[in-house]
Every structure is written in structure tokens, then in C-alpha cells.
Amino acid sequence: MTASRSGSVAGGPITNVLVANRGEIARRVFATCRRMGIGTTAVYSDADAASPHVAEADAAIRLPGNTPAQTYLRGELIIEAALSAGADAIHPGYGFLSENAEFARAVLDAGLAWIGPPVAAIEQMGSKVESKKMMDAAGVPVLAELDPAEVTDAHLPVLIKASAGGGGRGMRVVRDLAELRDQIAGAQREAESAFGDPTVFCERYLETGRHIEVQIMSDTFGTTWAVGERECSIQRRHQKVVEEAPSPLVEKIDGMRDRLFEAARLAAEAIGYEGAGTVEFLADEKGDFFFLEMNTRLQVEHPVTEQTTGLDLVRLQLQVAAGRPLPAVQPAQRGHSIEVRLYAEDPAHDWQPQSGPVHKIEIPFTAGEFTVLDQPGVRLDTGVVDNSVVGVHYDPMLAKVISYAETRSEAAHLLATALQRAKIHGLVTNRDLLVRVLRHPAFLAGDTDTAFFATHDLAVLSAPLVSAADEALSIVAAALADSAVNRGASRLAGLTPSGWRNLASQPQTKSYESRISGTHEVRYRFTRTGVAVEGHDGLELISVAPDRVVLGVAGERGSVRRQFEIARYGDLVAVDSPLGPVAVRRLPRFTDPSEQVAAGSLLAPMPGSVIRLGAAEGDQVKQGQPILWLEAMKMEHTIAAPATGILSALNVTVGQQVEVGTVLAVVEEEEQEQEQEQA
What we know:
CATH class of the domain at 335-465: Alpha Beta
Radius of gyration: 27 Å
Strand order of the largest sheet: 14-13-10-11-12-15-23-21-20
Strand content: 25-35%
Largest sheet: 9 strands, mixed
């Protein structure tokens, strides 16, 4: 067999596809393969052995190890896995090796079909430095690239970018020339970890702008479609959070879509492109735009284009790779679609990634998974299911939740409601932030840019959806449901149920800890007529069970019935209701003194590896000063001093692996030092 220019294997159809990736994108490709009658093969790291994508594949091959460098970046192991499983094609997904020309060439050399563009196109676009020069020569508007060694104060602010990758890895904004060297070093480490290539470059950073990209699809017969544009302006750490099609900016500026599509086609034709790709631009409010990069792969946000065109882009990828032409007629755009990335992270605390079990994930109104919807509804593309575990080695994205409707306002309303009512138990996520963005007046007006979170106050946007009063009511429901559990256990043991008395007695007490509002103590007493809860006058207990409580809540215009659903996972209690999601932890009646930590302790917010130290034991440190850096989920995370004082203990060394909650260091505040000296 010989390889065609597109990277497919000439002489026969594709019958079995290995996806050189994991999680959500692997499941996405498998879904289309099943619909086409094509066999599937998965690869997995040790950390992913229980991942849904492994169970769904026809065959699965282990890649020994946990980190990307040990597993999903090992091209030779992936090719060997494909050959041993009888696969005849490899789909790279996104990230990892998806834009690695050497890997694509090795796939073809092994006699396998490559579900991607020609190797030469990957090479030409693989270097963001060289690709900009090529686009400039082709007539595509570009931002000038800067040599890091030649950056001066006059160039500031600048953006450091990884030449070999994307997704926010290896990207840093520098506004102070004194920070440039350290930031370049940090970006190089992230780029090496994520892509196996530490090369970075700089370009002028535009504080505000609109991130607009064009989906292209080219076949081997010279046909190139500009399938549609997407707007991905709302970002955190230079990584997209909310994406939509079509773009609100493009919709309101006459002629902009035509100019964007023409620039995208020029970019594709300049490198003889084939397959699916994305040309990314940074635009201003006037409709002028500049080439950023070309992603020679499928994008994370491709579902919004599928929803607004009716196309299955993975199906088209497979057909083009098999040497088939694109359909004669390109479909017209329809309706509006919005995608949000649901991350296991805490936006209110510097986007801190989270790890641990996902006890439950249930998104209401879901009409389909990994499939194009024909009617308005919610689509779910996710890499996790109930009881999945989110580790520290990979990106913390849990799912992509996508709405499709006739209008933009309907799509935003549907998606916000689905997210608010979703049951997501076990991890802190960015769900509340996403809902607030989708309901924000600026978003609904289409007034978005890359500085959205800074402009509209991240602290406000990341605030809990549930009010303090509604959270307190939800915790009362949790306490009453827990009492039902206790009564059931007492009956099984042949004991008198606690709380039920003929005579007045002391109230029952249950305590809970909310990560948002602190400790809540619920004091209640069951009576002949219902329940009396201190601080909640007029509360009527309509029904109570271990998993469901219905309360009548007194209001100015009479009683309102509220229903609460309760789930428990150890000491974690999740309460879901239309008021909003609430998660608390039950506190024990008695505290073990050995579990207390010293004041000023810096606890590991996540499992990770210590990669650098910023101070030594005994040093005088200032509030906010970096003490050490952790690497987790392919990103660096700074652990800073909580107050000014003395670093009295440093309990870790470079290279040490730590678990969440580990005491990394202790900073004794200045006032505390003075008190000790006086004593």
C-alpha cells in the first residue's frame, strides 16, 4: 500500500481507527466511527485505565506510565499499539501529538492512514514563527513576531507563546521587562511538558480583542470550504472557556465574514491543506483582524460549528482521509450554538485546578451525546461519567456542554438553565462562573472580548449562584434528610428514633462546613405538628426522606413549597434544588486534635510535584511572595506566602510528589513572632 497526499492509505477503505488520545475527544471520534461501522482502538495510560474511552473501544492497548511524556507523547508506542491491534488508521484528536509532523510521518511510514493534513502542512504551520512569515507572504494580515532577546520596554506588554502548541500552555503576558527572563523560562518548562518542545517566541499583546476563528475543510481534489466562523473571546489564562457560532461581532459588521473566509482560504491554499483545520484571528471592534495561528487538527470547540451546519466534522475527516471528495454543495448556516468548557477548577482562587472523584455528573435537557442535534436542545461531550476520577496528569476539563437553538438569546438561556440545574457532585468546578457569564448583560449583548473577566470583575462572576439565605435553607434540608437517615438506622438497630419526644427536649444539632460561607450549625426539634428550626420561623416540613426533603417556606405572599434532593458521599453532602447547587461537609461532633494544622501553614491545594523553591527555611518573606511552585495538570502553580513573616518551616524539596492537603511550609506572621519573643 502507498500513502496518498492526504495521508490516507491507498487501496482500501478505513476499517479500524486508533485514537492517539484520551478522554472526551477519544469518545467523540469513537462515536462517529461506530455510526460509520468502523472499528475502534484506544490507548491508555495507567492513570486512565478506568476511563470511559477505554471501555467503549473495541480494543485497548496500555501505555505504561502516567505522565504525557511517558504515554500519550510516545509516538512509537502508539504506532506499535495500532499495528498490534489491527488498526489501519490513526486519528490524533487534539493536543499531545496532533500537530507533530514527525509523528504523522512515522504513521505513514508504518503503512497506516493518517487522519489529518499532509505532513508538509503540519511542518509549515507547526512553527508559529515561520507560519506567520508564510501567511504574511500569502497576503494574510499578521501581528509581527518578536525575538525574546530583543524585547524592550517599548514593546511591552508582550505575549510569550509556545511555538509548538496551543491551549494556553506555555503562554505568559509580560508587562515588566524585569520579569521577562523568568516568564520565558516558565513558559519553556510548560511547553516542554505539554508538547515536548520548549521553543517560545514573543509578540505584541493586545489587551482587548475578539478571538475569531474559521473552520476550514479541504479535500484532495482542490476544494476548500470555509465552513463557518466561531467566536472564542472569553478566555482564562489564554485558554478558551466559552465558544459560539456564529460570531456576534461578525454578524454585525457588513462584509467581515467574506473577508475572514477569504483570508482562511488563502491560508489553506498557501500550504496545500487537506482535511479539517482552523485559522485563528485576533479582531478589533472595527472588523480588522490579524492572523494568530493555524491549528492543523480538529478544535475542542468544533461542536458549535457542527450544530450550526448539520455536519459531522469527524465523519468528513475520515472521508477525506479515505480519498473521497467533499459533497458538491456546502451546507448553509442555521441557528446558534454556544459551548462552555466545564472545568474542575476554582475560578475564585486563581483558577486552581481540582482533582479527585466525580461522584455524579448529570446535565438536564441533554438530547444527545457526541452527535449533531436536529432540534433545539443540549448536547454533551464528556470524558467523565459517574464515579470517574480526575487526576493531576492531564487537563482538568470535565465536559463540553453545548446548546443549540434558533436564536443566540435562546441558546444562552437554555445553556445557563441546564448548567444551574446540573448535578455535579464531588469536585469544585467553574459551573457558577459559566452560568453568570451566560446571563451577563454584556454577553447577551454580544459585547465580549479577551479581557472579559478583568472588565466585569472575576470575583463577582465567580460568586456562588445560590444566595446566603438559600444556602442556609438548603443546609437545613440536608440536616433534616440526615436525621431521616439516623432514624432509619435506629429502627434497624431496635433503638428509639432520636428527636421524637412526648415532652419538650433539647434541640438536635448538626454541623456542616461550607467552603463558601464557613460553619453552619442547624438546631432543630421535631414536634407533633412537624419541625421547629432555630432561625427559620414559619418553616413547614411537608415530607422528609434520606434523599428528598420538601419544605414550605413562609413568604410575604404566603408559603412557597421547595423541593430539595440530597446525595451523600462519605462526609460530603450535595443538595440540589431550583434555588441552586449547594455542597457541604458534615462536621464530626468531636474534633481530633491531631488533625489540626498550625497557623500560617501552606497546604498543597492539589496533588503535584515540587519543581522549584523560592525561599529557604528561616527567610523573611512578604505576603504574596512565591515560596514554591507545583506542577500539576500540565501547568505551573505558585504557592505564595499568606502573610509577611518568617518561613519557619519548609517541608518539601524539589522533585518531591505531594498529596492534596500536605503541609508544604509554615509562615509565622510578624505579630506572632513578637508575641513569642515577649513570652
